[in-house]
Write a structure and sequence with these properties.
Elements lengths: L2 E7 L8 E3 L1 E3 L12 E4 L18 E5 L4 E5 L5 E5 L4 H12 L4 E4 L16 E3 H8 L7 H8 L3 E4 L16 E6 L2 E10 L17 H11 L15 E7 L8 E3 L4 E9 L4
Parallel strand pairs: 9-10
Antiparallel strand pairs: 1-2, 1-10, 3-14, 4-8, 5-6, 6-7, 11-12, 11-15, 12-13
Helix pairs in contact: 2-3
Length: 267
């Protein structure tokens, strides 16, 4: 039976994540604490790795219980901040690092997702990560995890790209992880970030070209092909019914694919 092998949260959008043993579902479909904060410039735009290579150089460690972050600026010692009580001090450090004003905003209801139509956790499988990492010489599975930044990783006696069965041609597909009901929406469109080294921001030559070619070549035979307007897609976007708010997802939860069914879902 496929099961949850890893749960990753990213308390500040675009920065390092933290692995947890369990996570709570919010009414918006998001995981509590995931992308709860985001950095913004004076124009109200995200300060993220898509737009600023320097984001890759920041290292962070989070303590969710203490509501704190320990941040390492290149060439400086680590600094620790309480995310609620010392936010202005953290903003000052980020402003100095980026060399333009940075504001740290908070959203405890839905966080700051890239896909505002599918607010649920992104799902990928360990065999998929292992397979895709093998396409690129010297790339570790851990480095690929850092590039793709999925929330839930599924393992078990399953093939690569097993998660591609969690979305359908039309509507969304219903499945359970533990006792939490998920709706699989579509394969996640990737941005420029996975093409770069997660620590340095250095681009991997022809990453997207190699990825697209191999992804098309290795698509499962029963995949909902119409959901691929291009093949730079990996992991599954999800949403949840309101009834799942407050439920807990944890390591070891089984994915009950026999309960999968097609659901016509309208927003």
């Amino acid at each position: 039976m496929p099961y949850v092998a890893r749960i990753s949260l990213f308390p500040i959008k675009s920065l390092d994540g933290v692995d947890v043993t369990k996570a709570t579902m919010l009414s918006s479909s998001a995981l509590q604490y995931d992308r709860e904060y985001a950095m913004f410039d004076e124009g109200g735009k995200f300060v993220n790795a898509k737009r600023n290579l320097k984001v890759h150089l920041l290292r962070c460690e989070f303590s969710l219980s203490d509501r704190s972050v320990c941040i390492q600026i290149p060439g400086s010692k680590s600094l620790q901040f309480h995310l609620d009580q010392e936010r202005q001090l953290l903003e000052a450090v980020l402003t100095e690092f980026f060399e333009f004003p940075v504001k740290l905003e908070q959203n405890t209801i839905m966080g700051f997702p890239d896909d505002t139509n599918s607010l649920g956790p992104t799902i990928i499988s360990t065999p998929t990560l292992r397979e895709v990492a093998s396409w690129f010489p010297d790339m570790s599975i851990e480095e690929l995890r850092r590039r793709l930044r999925a929330n839930i990783e599924i393992d078990g006696d399953i093939p690569p790209f097993w998660e591609d069965k969690l979305f359908a041609v039309d509507g969304v597909k219903s499945f359970y992880v533990g006792d939490v009901n998920f709706f699989g929406v579509n394969p996640c469109a990737r941005c420029i970030v996975p093409t770069r080294d997660s620590y340095t921001g250095e681009a991997y030559l022809n990453f997207q070209k190699i990825f697209v070619s191999k992804r098309q070549e290795t698509l499962p035979v029963d995949v909902a092909l119409s959901r691929f307007n291009h093949f730079f897609r990996l992991s599954v976007n999800t949403k949840l019914p309101m009834s799942e708010a407050g439920k807990t997802l944890q390591i070891g939860d089984e994915v009950e694919i026999e309960k999968c069914k097609l659901v016509q879902f309208f927003t």
